[in-house]
Amino acid sequence: MTNKSENNYIRRFSDLGLNDVSIVGGKNASLGEMIRELTSKGIRIPDGFAITAEAYWHFLKIEGLEPAIRRELGRGDRERGSRIRHLMLGAHLPADLSEQIVAGYHALCQESGADALDVAVRSSATAEDLPQASFAGQQETYLNVQGASSLLESCRRCFASLFTDRALSYREEMGFDHMKVGLSVGVQRMIRSDLASAGVMFSIDTETGFKNAVLINSSYGLGENVVQGSVNPDEYIVFKPTLKEGFRPILQKRLGTKEFKLVYDNGGARMVKNVPVPQDERKKFASSDGEILTLAKWALLIEDHYSHFRGHFTPMDMEWAKDGKTGELFILQARSETVQSRKNLEMLDSFSLKAKGEVLVTGSSIGEKIAQGVIRVIRSTEHLELLKEGEILVTDKTDPDWEPVMKRASAIITNRGGRTCHAAIVARELGIPAIVGTERGTEILKNGMRVTVSCAEGAQGFVYRGSLPFVRKSEQLSNDRRPNTRIMMNVADPGEAFRLSMIPNDGVGLARLEFIIGNTIGVHPMALLRFDELRDTEAKAKIEDLTALYASKPQFFIEKLAEGVGMIGAAFHPKDVIVRLSDFKTNEYAHLLGGTQFEPAEENPMLGFRGASRYYHSRYREGFALECMAIKKVRDDMGLRNIKLMIPFCRTVDEGRRVVEEMKKYGLNRGKNGLEIYVMCEIPSNVLLAESFAEIFDGFSIGSNDLTQLILGVDRDSEVVAPIFDERNQAVQWMIGRVIRVAKSKKKKIGLCGQAPSDYPEFARFLVRCGIDSISLNPDAVVRTTQIVLDQEGEISPDERVA
After folding, report:
1. HEC assignment per residue over 370-419
2. Per-residue pLDDT tens for 195-210?
3. 3-state SS, residue 487
């Protein structure tokens, strides 16, 4: 073959589709598919063209490179990649290929009305972006490439990057033949996100595989910083089902530190550079709520299209950018997600610490596992060989050059990066835990230090000093048989909700606000409402810092509480999620920031100013209003109408009426948009006056702990009399049986939340025989107790279902 050829090595994106992977690789085929099929639906994709994989093989043949590459590959030493790249960079692109690339570039410039358009030059391997392998970042990308000569040089470098050490290692790991993988190059118009923001999004939760969430990362500048984990980006979670219905379900927003942004450097050799982000910008979200919702809608359209094309659910991994000149959003590329989509959903593998210790650093958790080992701090690729098998890798950030040795690590800890960064993606593929974005991991963690890395405690990961005892449990999950008695779950931590929802269940019977208020908000609501009156100057300074992002200090409480409840509500949607309104005791409220000023001192807080009594009292009425506003936001803005409410420790019928009236003031009207309000049955008066309570509530939830305590007069925390505490006591069972009978006669729902049914099979049998509607349990008891209840139901005839 001569240098002159009739072959067309250039294909416009608009002429490509998903059936062209063998010609232009997954990345370019996907861009063509979206331009052809999704621009009509409002999704913007920057135009460009692909240089085909045939052009790559043409380059090798004309320059006589193939035999030399095969020889180098056969040597198998560490330097083979470097020698191959040197060979390729010393060769010239064939004249016919160069002419076609330049012509394609000039056509793109002409259409854009520019003399020298700035473009991104991205590699697209013909085995890349397949469902069984991510190939994430294996080859090079060049940004802000301007002019024909720079474009040709970047294309040649892309071809050579097929033989980086990381790419060689990855292909061998995944079983791909080096000489059967070609390389296409995409030339795409640059989006000026260096003047705005960019990031990554997934149409699935990257940690749990929860299918109904869109995860979006955002940071200032060009998106490579987010992809490579060079910054700790902002993070957003959006709920798909109610987004489709027209609601605004941003379930969670987390502010990242966003220390740097990647911008144009037209005078520099690499054309881009990192610059510091001003402090005031770091403390703001890089994207607006409207932009996040638009991106999430696009993610749904893209996922639906690819799922239809492939004939099965296909979650997507996408890169996006906002043009700072026009304010427009764009999708830069889309590929199939490759980890959670292959997860075995019939097995639940769970880890839990038996004891906790000194926390050294924290960050975003990846992998839901626990690992232990010795720390190895590595600051650059020059020292990668120091990492020994089973050690815990600690570094600033990773990139694809680290991959050949990352498989040795038992866990990974980085200073920088979010849940979509390189270290997170590789950790998921390797099946090891990682904690990213610790900020100071390389400072605090020292070589030789033995630690426990826990990613099994929700969205936040913890590095503990020493080897702490932990438990690993595997359970077979099945939804084949469900009992007539609904088996629900007690859920406290919103960060655990997506994972827990994978356990076969019938919803959430108890979601406690105390965990969210104590762990996520940490501030007494009255201290936010009466901030100017606060006497505690230290608390005042901390509150000022915590609320800096919000329109007002009370708004901080509303937003954070809504996020926490929203996460739980979304995780179990459309099943019922029964949210118990706050039930802190006065001593617990006093421990919140600014709390001591607003709480009375009580000798026995367990029987004092708690539950329903607070909601209409002048001391707390305004604080309760914030709780109501948060719930209204979850139901009306996020569209999570599966949220039901429960009133705790309601002593009298009159008190119940007063609370229901108080809730109406803030739009929480019983019956409106399906709102149901239950009462906890945990005081003997609730049982004795059950007929009257049934008139004002939709149902009861038996709080067996407090009810047993008050019936028997036992403080279960007292080591002296605690042994008397027993839900199986005849008096306790009589009271429970009675309230179930009353609820049934009044056609009201009734359930029980407590540990007794899982601890005592005979107690579960008793509840089933009484005809209880639901039993709500701690997550670790759900699978086991479901089987107990199924067995009990099988042994009980309909005639026996009487208390």
Report:
1. EEEEEEEECCCHHHHHHCCCCCEEEECCCCHHHHHHHCCCCEEEECCCCC
2. 999 999 999 999 889 9
3. strand
Same domain for 586 and 601, yes or no, is: yes
Residues 22 and 149 in one domain: yes
Is 383 assigned a catalytic role?
no
For 71, the domain range is 10-190
* Over residues 538-543, mean pLDDT: 96
**Tokens 């250039």, located at residue:** 10
**Residue 106 is a catalytic residue:** no
Q: Which residues contact 533 (CB under 8 A, 6 or more apart)?
A: 597
> Which pair of tokens denotes residue 597?
């000023």
Q: Does some domain include residue 52?
A: yes
Give the separation between CA 99 and CA 352, rounded to whole angstroms. 61
User: What CA–CA distance (Å, rounded) separates 34 from 48?
Assistant: 12
Half-sphere exposure of 71 (CA within 13 A, CB side): 7
334: closest CA among 293, 305, 294? Answer: 305
Mean pLDDT in residue range 24-29:
92
CA distance 266 to 232: 26
Of 422, 455, 628, 650, the catalytic one is: 422
pLDDT above 80 (res 489): yes
CA distances to 249, 293, 644 from 243, in Å: 6, 8, 20
User: Which CATH number belongs to the domain containing residue 644 in this structure?
Assistant: 3.20.20.60
pLDDT at 798: 57
The active-site residue, picked from 109, 681, 753, 770, is: 753
Regarding predicted confidence, which is higher, 480 or 19?
A: 19
Residues 6+ apart with CB under 8 A from 72: 80, 83, 84, 87
The CATH number that applies at residue 427 is 3.50.30.10
| Mean pLDDT computed over every residue of the chain | 91
Closest CA to 510 of 625, 621, 647, 671: 647
pLDDT in tens, 552-594: 999 999 999 999 999 999 999 999 999 999 999 999 999 999 9
Nearest Cα neighbor of 556 from 567, 565, 566, 544 is 544
Domain end, chosen from 175, 190, 205, is at 190
Is pLDDT above 80 for 304? yes
Domain ends where: 138, 167, 190? 190
- Residues 636 and 715 grouped into a single domain: no
Residue 3 lies inside a defined structural domain of this protein: no
Provide the pLDDT for residue 402.
84
